[in-house]
């Protein structure tokens, strides 16, 4: 049999072929399984490794962005508190969350989930600056597909404020103009001012002036012409007067004394320890007076708070609330919502009260008014044509024997004493009547509900009783009359967050024994190096070149015309001191270089088109005149200027920086352009606070915080721990 099989070659070949295919199939399946497993393992391993680098890249990117923002904030005159508050807000809004900056990988989009915690705070005095260090921990979770890996690092952010050094003083806040003189600061016609002003007294006798800031005076402020102030007015010890119909204060007025607004002038809110007078057609949101409030006609307010009386003229529209410690008296055609008075409330004709009147005295409604609920500690009396769309609660009488008529109450009447309805005078009491004593009810009058009286029901002048729709209960307990709500006292002007001292700013003492700068002919070029000089005596179109550094003169008087000043700020700030005057005559032109090679002409056009750069340049220039500072017509000057005596600027000047006066008079011509810029690296930084104080709502300053100077040493971001996997 076996011989037959072996002899049958075709059968053997078939068997061998089947066996071969079987073996190959098993081997192929095994190899395929191993291959797929290897591919999956390779992909998983690649994803796992990738997520680490994704997480690490998230750390690096986040720290780089944060460091750039910290440097930007560090260039600003911010207190420690303000710096870290703004930095933390930036972290929350722009760093924390999913970072999706990676390219797709195998059809999947990688991301890094970023989270930053604030760990610790440390403050110290280091050399000449005060330092606050905030430690942060940053975690980054790299994700791709189903894989994720988390890494972390920690770093410190050091914010530094240079302390004020000898020879300079500080003022409590930063101003475009600060005067410690007892001379009144009088501003001329027109102009654009971007920044805050401070002086003992301020008068804006100027038409068409745009002030993008606040006015602060030790005593009083008066605006006598068409002026728009986008900030607030602060009269720390005196009064405020707006004496022109086109005077506008977009924020609040704060005054220790009285406040007066002429017809048509406007302010957002007013806070005064004294009286407030609004003449006619004023628009004020909230009024707070320690004394009385008086308005003319057509005045619109939302809320009035007064420690004394409130007297409203005719046609006023008070849409919310009146709180008066004294009496409230209105003219005709006044609309109110709620009145609270410590004294009496007297309403003239045509008034409309939509919610309630609360009086700790009596309420008198004269004629033709529509009122709501009445609450009074005394009596409620009225003339003719009064409608009360609510309840009456009076501790005394409601009505009286000798006046009143055409009176309607669409509610109940509660009286601690008597209730009167005069015969034939059309009283319509459309609810119940409760009286602590008697109800005297006249002919042709109607009480629709019941009558409950602690006394008796009586006829008026022995005439027949009027109509009563409900029951009558005499000698009963009518219940308790609801007492009025007391008024809320006014909010006093709050200067606690910001106290301006009118101290003189110390000037730098020095002795200059250097040579004079003298020209023998026009258009001479003088290359000045930092140091000491006597006098400057130069000629027409001379050129003066200044390098980075500090210059001391006995007299810096550029009395010749068209002098050119070339300031090289490439290596740092320039400071100019003069024992006498600093005088910029006609045509004096400033040129500035930031690279040591190229100079840019600084004029009105440059400031208009490059305001931010002009501010940056101004922070690096300082001029200190121990006597007077002069600027001729149409000049442009950048920097901080301190004049120990007079400050004189002619018409159409452009000034960017801070301008400080110790004594003497301030004279500024028409149509100036004045823009605040903080001193950053110049000696002028000794005369600013870095925003360590601010008036409420003024926009000045930047909040509290340690550190008393303003010369900001650059912020440093210090990595404290390497990137490690968690």
What can you tell me about this protein's structure?
The protein has about 725 residues and is mainly beta. Among the domains are: about 45-105 and about 110-160; about 275-490, no CATH class; about 515-655, no CATH class. Strands 6-9-12-15-17-19-21-23-25-27-29-31-33-36-39-42 form a 16-stranded parallel beta sheet, with no helix packed on it. A hairpin with a 2-residue loop joins β3 (about 130-145) and β4 (about 145-160). α2 (about 10-75) packs antiparallel against α3. The radius of gyration is 41 Å and the shape is flat. The relative contact order is 0.11. It comes from Halolactibacillus alkaliphilus. It holds the Pfam family PilX_N. This is Type 4 fimbrial biogenesis protein PilX N-terminal domain-containing protein.
Helicity range of the residues? 10-25%
Structural class: mainly beta
What is the mean predicted local confidence, pLDDT?
A: 85
Assembly of the depicted chains: single chain
Distance between the termini: 76 Å
Compact overview of the structure:
With 726 residues, the protein is mainly beta. Strands 6-9-12-15-17-19-21-23-25-27-29-31-33-36-39-42 form a 16-stranded parallel sheet, with no helix packed on it. The protein has a 10-stranded parallel β-barrel with strand order 5-8-11-14-16-13-10-7-62-60. Helix 2 runs antiparallel to helix 3 (80-94).
Using brief descriptors, characterize the structure shown.
16-stranded parallel beta sheet, 14% helix, mainly beta, 726 residues, Type 4 fimbrial biogenesis protein PilX N-terminal domain-containing protein, 5 helices, 10-stranded parallel β-barrel, PilX_N_dom
